Automatic annotation (TrEMBL):
Upper lineage: Bacteria, Pseudomonadati, Pseudomonadota, Alphaproteobacteria, Sphingomonadales
Biological pathway: Lipid metabolism; phospholipid metabolism
Protein name per UniProt: Phosphate acyltransferase
Pfam families given in the database record: FA_synthesis
Top EC class of this enzyme: transferase
UniProt KW keywords: Acyltransferase, Cytoplasm, Lipid biosynthesis, Lipid metabolism, Phospholipid biosynthesis, Phospholipid metabolism, Transferase
Length: 344
C-alpha cells in the first residue's frame, strides 16, 4: 500500500540554506503535487523564501528553530548540542511519525550520529550504511554503499550492506533481481581480505534472495554498468566516490580547456556541443543527488551541501519514493528471509 509522503526538510543545512532548500522543495512539489512538508528552521527566513513559492506554502507547516548544527561540528558535539536544532527536529519528526522521511544538506557525520541515536538501527542490522546512486554506462545507475559511515567492516556487515543495497536498487530503480558485487583488488576468489572473501562465501549461498551475487568487481569497473550494487566498507567507498567525482571534474575541465585553446578548437566545440552537453548532464552531481542512510527505522536522506534547487528536488523525490514504496519494510523482510534460510 502506498504511503502519503510528508517530508521534513532541514531548511538551514547546506552551503546556501533556506533559499535553496525551499526552492528545491517547491520544484519537487510542482512535479509531485501530493507532497507535503515540514520546513524546519528560522520561521522568518522560511516565510520570506515561501513568498516566491505559493504552491509550497500551501502544502507546508513551519517548525521554528534558530539553532543550527554547523559544518564544523563533530558528531559528538552534535549529539550533545544538537537537540532542538533544525537537523535534530527534522529527524525527531520522523521518529514521532509526523513525517515519513527527512532531508538535510547539513553535516554528514552529525546527521548520521543524530539519526542513528533517534531512530535506532533495524532488527538484524549491526550498522547503518550510507548509500547513493551514481551514473554508469549501463541502463541504470549503480548503488554504492557504504560511502563513509563505517570505516571498518566485518563480513557480516558487508552481507547486511548487500541485502540493504539490493532492496534499495529494487525500490529506486525497479530492478527485480539486482546484480550485486563486492569491491575488491581483483576478481579471483582468493583475492582480498578475509572479511571480503568470507562475505562472498555467505552471499554465494543467498540464492533465495531477490538479487544475483556476481562476485568481485575492481575499481576500474565501477561505472561500466556490469553490476547494479557495489558493496564495500566506508573507508574504501569514500575514497572510490571522491576519486570518481574528481575524475569527472578533471574530464570536464580538460575538455573546457581543450575547447578554448584556439579558434579551431572553439569551432570544434560548437560542432560537438550536443555531445558535450549530454556529457555534462550525465556527470552533473545534481542529477544524482541524495544519499540515504540504510538500516535505520526511518528514511533519512543526505543532500550534497553544494546542491542547487534541482539537486535538492531530486533528493526530495528520492525520499518520497522510498517512503511510498516502504523501503524499511522491504529491507526488514529481506533480512528476515536471509537469517531464516541461513539458519536452516
Amino acid at each position: 500500500m502506498s504511503l502519503t509522503p510528508r517530508i521534513a526538510i532541514d531548511a538551514m543545512g547546506g552551503d546556501v540554506g533556506v533559499r535553496v532548500m525551499c526552492a528545491g522543495a517547491a520544484m519537487a512539489r510542482h512535479q509531485h503535487d501530493g507532497l507535503r512538508f515540514l520546513l524546519v528552521g528560522d520561521e522568518t527566513r522560511i516565510k520570506t523564501a515561501l513568498d516566491n513559492h505559493p504552491n509550497l506554502r500551501a502544502a507546508s507547516e513551519i517548525v521554528h528553530t534558530d539553532k543550527v548544527v554547523s559544518g564544523e561540528d563533530k558528531p559528538s558535539q552534535a549529539l550533545r548540542n544538537g537537540r532542538g536544532s533544525s537537523m535534530g527536529l527534522a529527524i525527531d519528526a520522523v521518529k514521532r511519525g509526523d513525517a515519513g522521511g527527512a532531508v538535510s544538506a547539513g553535516n554528514t557525520g552529525a546527521l548520521m550520529a543524530m539519526a542513528k541515536l533517534a531512530l535506532r538501527t533495524m532488527p538484524g542490522i549491526d550498522r547503518p550504511a550510507l548509500a547513493a546512486l551514481l551514473p554508469s554506462l549501463g541502463d541504470n545507475d549503480v548503488v554504492m554503499l557504504d560511502l563513509g559511515a563505517n570505516t571498518d567492516c566485518d563480513a557480516t556487515n558487508l552481507v547486511q550492506f548487500a541485502v540493504m543495497g539490493a532492496a534499495y536498487a529494487r525500490t529506486a530503480m525497479g530492478l527485480e533481481r539486482p546484480r550485486v558485487a563486492l569491491l575488491n583488488i581483483g576478481t579471483e576468489e582468493l583475492k582480498g581480505t578475509d572479511e571480503i572473501r568470507d562475505a562472498a562465501a555467505m552471499l554465494r549461498g543467498a540464492g533465495h534472495l531477490p538479487m544475483e551475487f556476481t562476485g568481485f568487481v575492481e575499481g576500474d569497473k565501477l561505472s561500466r554498468g556490469h553490476v547494479d550494487v557495489i558493496v564495500h566498507d566506508g573507508f574504501s567507498g569514500n575514497i572510490a566516490l571522491k576519486t570518481m567525482e574528481g575524475t569527472a571534474r578533471f574530464v570536464t575541465d580538460l575538455l573546457r580547456r581543450a575547447f578554448t585553446s584556439s579558434t579551431r578548437s572553439k569551432i570544434g566545440f560548437l560542432i560537438s556541443r550536443p555531445a558535450t552537453e549530454l556529457l555534462r548532464h550525465h556527470l552533473d552531481p545534481n542529477n544524482h543527488n541524495g544519499a540515504v542512510f540504510l538500516g535505520l527505522n526511518g528514511v533519512v536522506l543526505k543532500s550534497h551541501g553544494s546542491a542547487d534547487a534541482k539537486g535538492v528536488a531530486n533528493a526530495v523525490h528520492l525520499c518520497a519514493e522510498l517512503i511510498e514504496k516502504d523501503i524499511t519494510r522491504q529491507v526488514t523482510e529481506d533480512l528476515a528471509n536471509f537469517r531464516r534460510d541461513s539458519a536452516a
